[in-house]
Amino acid sequence: MKKTTVCINNSILQNSPLDDISTEQLWNAAQIHIVKQGDFLLRAGQTCQHIWLLEKGACRAFYDHHTREINTAFFFESDFITNMKSLRNQDPSGYHLQANTRSVLLRWHKDTLAGLYKLSPAIAAFGRERLELLAIAGETHADWLKTHTPEERYQYILQHQPELIQRVSITQLSSYIGISRETLSRIRRRVL
């Protein structure tokens, strides 16, 4: 657990409102969750009960559309993962959360977090900030799909999110960009 805490402290706690006591309370309440590639954190139709923090590995959010998977988000080290709408409203999830690789995560049950939020205003502020960032990322991706051409989207990923090119299959990347695999291959040939 010490290695996990050190890794997380270095990456996400630098500008957080957490003091040492709140940090220790938060990490002590977490469960270590190890999943294999292809394991689901959450399936469509299930109600989300957890928030995860990815320490090592990669995960994705996707939904099934007829016979295709549509990827809407990718998560890497130090990213928080949840389905906010399902977690908050206790509605069935409309999409899946799945491990893209063997992954090590910290996991908090929603009831555990609710107790921590009551115990520590600093943890509540930290949690609220992280959930807001997740919501902003989702909204940004939706806007990005509406306002940029496929080639502009691919150029953006090359410049600002190169880990997607390195860590995500071309099939998953093409659905994330909102195009077919064949169209992405043509764009890649033109760009390279």
Automatic annotation (TrEMBL):
Residues 35-117 form the Cyclic nucleotide-binding domain. This is Crp/Fnr family transcriptional regulator. InterPro entries: cNMP-bd_dom, cNMP-bd_dom_sf, RmlC-like_jellyroll. CDD domains: CAP_ED.
